């Protein structure tokens, strides 16, 4: 048997993961690597490490690979895909002036008008000295896919949304082209479309088949959505990773830059959503994963904590309010760590509930149920707190890892979103 297995790679904020599945969607292998999301060299090392970690007999049967990456993380490369800038991360909001220029020409409420958008960062990067030889603007997943195919300059319509790509008409709109960065924009294809085959030298280096396909990828939280297996309008998927990302399967797209709301195209439907800077990264500032699990077991989720927190790892919020100056609110800290954690989990759950309310108020399909993915999905007390505040059933998704969603994309290609 050959080429009958599929590899999904997920590059998240705090780690990278690999997942190998067969035609039936059965997981045959997983791997995990710590890496530095700020360093492209570390992305590459993590990719090589993850592939090397897979059992050799499975590696030799890979038929297709797809990569998911942090959304809105951009960098500039030369014509050979070599980076000529460091990546600017998804939550980097230095491009305030550029966002104001975008606001003047973009349709009202467009996600690209946020200072954290890929487009604002692209304009900021392009204005830096030494970038005149830049040939492409790329994102984390597309850059890694291009390292696998040797073909730069391609992206998918999920990763391209925050660069201003018109996902309704599948084109770069004139208002984006008019911003002086048109020559750097990638050609955009559907997630899952075949980008190319792994060339021989890459295949030899990674010890994988030289006819293994590379399919266009997606963002980390859309990969998590795919993993969750949600299928009905009104199904929500909350990624409780380092950040808190919400996706609501909807018949209609909605957008509102003031509250950080945007809609990804999902075949003929839409993923209405937004991403808060709150999430597991704040919890990690206080507790390691073991302590989190221990303390969580002692929380009574049926009673309110009595604390009114807005947990953020640093000043600045994107959704459900887009406010670069918003300050974290995590005072007063009680002596009892169980109560403190209770307050933090409840605070994040309130942000989630407000987020879904905002999406529905803007016209997305009404919320029916919520699946959870990411590191926070395993926390039963948190799940109960969230169900109380969301007022709909909340369950852990059957597959909670974005890498599994990326593997599904590798396996099914464009059929997945059809
Ligand atoms: N038991 C737990 N309860 C709540 N959060 C947890 C628990 N265990 C881990 N986490 C959180 O999950 C996050 C990591 O999840 P993960 O999905 O790997 O994130 P990402 O891919 O965004 O880096 C960490 O920030 C951590 O705080
Ligand atoms: O916090 C993030 C890290 O990637 C992203 O902003 C989040 O995943 C949501 O992005 P998208 O909705 O475009 O998938």
Automatic annotation (TrEMBL):
What SUPFAM superfamilies does its record include? Actin-like ATPase domain
Q: Is Lipid metabolism included in the keywords of this UniProt record?
A: no
Q: Which UniProt keywords apply?
A: Kinase, Transferase
Q: Which ranges carry the Carbohydrate kinase FGGY N-terminal domain?
A: 6-225
UniProt keyword Kinase, yes or no: yes
Tell me which InterPro entries the record gives.
ATPase_NBD (IPR043129), Carb_kinase_FGGY (IPR000577), FGGY_C (IPR018485), FGGY_N (IPR018484)
Pfam families assigned? FGGY_C, FGGY_N
Question: Domain Carbohydrate kinase FGGY C-terminal spans what residues?
Answer: 238-410
Name one molecular function that GO assigns to this entry. Answer: kinase activity
To which protein family does this belong?
Belongs to the FGGY kinase family.
Q: What is this protein called?
A: FGGY-family carbohydrate kinase
